[in-house]
Structure formats: structure tokens, C-alpha cells
Amino acid sequence: MTTQPTAILVHGAFADASSWNGVIADLTDRGFPVIAAANPLRSLSTDAATIKALVQSIDGPVVLVGHSYGGAVISNAAVGQANVKALVSIAGFLPEQGESALELSNKFPGSTLGDTLQTVALPDGNTDLYVRQELFPNQFAADVPASQAALMAATQRPVAEAALTGGSDSPAWHDLPVWTLIPTGDKNIPPAAQHFMAKRAEATVVEIADASHAVLVSQPKAVADLIADAAGAQA
């Protein structure tokens, strides 16, 4: 029997590892080992180094999966890691060298995220960003049940402004196969931007009509299907 690759799931900004719960349950039922990593959300370089260290601890093949900003993290973390066999971007960023998440989200019209943000000045001089709780459900998770979206808003992890403005190193998508899921109702990263990045990376693309940025929560089976496809293609 062929051993399934380990799926390492990397959450993005304004979320935590629990956003993968439905996807984890589905993948586990299919026999995949799964780790939902804790993404620090501090800077692209340090976040990628954290995920790279986790990848290096795995004995065997890995499929790296990133949601939103997590897509940029996995694009950097996978560089030079021979056991990473594929990248899967879920409503995510696939930056070219030097590009930032903020730059890419503003490359095409449609993002309404900026108007929903609340800033918190940190003692070290950095700035944390939150989505205002009353605006979070509509902005981030419009197709998630209201009670669940409210919990997501209250438990969101802030992202450091530096993480969204930092430029990417040379990304692993130049050398690895990529699968991308694009929710057409995304209000954070315009679908046009996601298509632009997917085309550039020569990704296999699946669209989910009218799904929100939180498609991993609202449509966990579709996300798990794409991850399984990516893993199966490497078998």
C-alpha cells in the first residue's frame, strides 16, 4: 500500500489553524496524515522559516497547502525542500520574487478588505491588523453560518502589517506543480488577481462559484478534493 503524503495546512491572516477543521476531518477519513500548522503571521521570511522547519521534520513526502497569505508562506517555505511534492493554494497568494501580498491584492480592483481593518500599535513599533468584528462575517465569511462566522471574528489571529508588505523571495512554484482553488465571491483577494497568479504559475485551477474567502470553512470537501488530487498526481 502506498503511503499517503502528509498534508501540511497553513492558515492565513485573520484566521487560525481551526479554520481547517472540516478539511482535516475529510482528509483524515481518506487516510492522509495531516498537520494544521500555526502560522506566526509576523513576517513573510520568518513565517516561511517556521513552516520550512516543520517540513524538514517530516519523514516522507509532503503536500503544502496555504490559504490566503498562507499561499505566499508555502511558496517560500518549499524552496529547496525535496520532500515537498506539490503546492495547493486556497484563495491564496502565489507571489513572484519581490512581490508582496498587499501589492498583489491591489493589482486588480475588487478587494474591500482595507476599509474593514482595525490597527493596533505594538510596543516594538510594529502594527497588528484585525478585521473589525462587526464587519468580519460579510467581508471574510459571507457563506459561513452567522454563528460560526461570529466565532471566527472573535478568535481571529492578527497579522503584522510587515507580513503583508514584505516582498517574496524566489518562490517554489517555479519548480513545483501547483493546484489553485479560486472562490469567485472572494472580497479579500480579487478573483482576477487569483487567476493572474494561477496562470503565471501554470496551476491546475478549480473555481467555486460565489464562495467566500473562507471557502475552506464553507466548502471543506471541495478543498479536500483538490488536495487529494494534488497528492494523487504525485503518486
Automatic annotation (TrEMBL):
Transmembrane segments: none annotated. SUPFAM superfamilies: alpha/beta-Hydrolases (SSF53474). It comes from the Bacteria. It comes from Kutzneria chonburiensis. GO terms for molecular function: hydrolase activity. Residues 8-225 form the AB hydrolase-1 domain. InterPro entries: AB_hydrolase_1 (IPR000073), AB_hydrolase_fold (IPR029058), Sec-Metab_Biosynth_Hydrolase (IPR052897). Pfam families: Abhydrolase_6 (PF12697). Keywords: Hydrolase. This is Alpha/beta fold hydrolase.
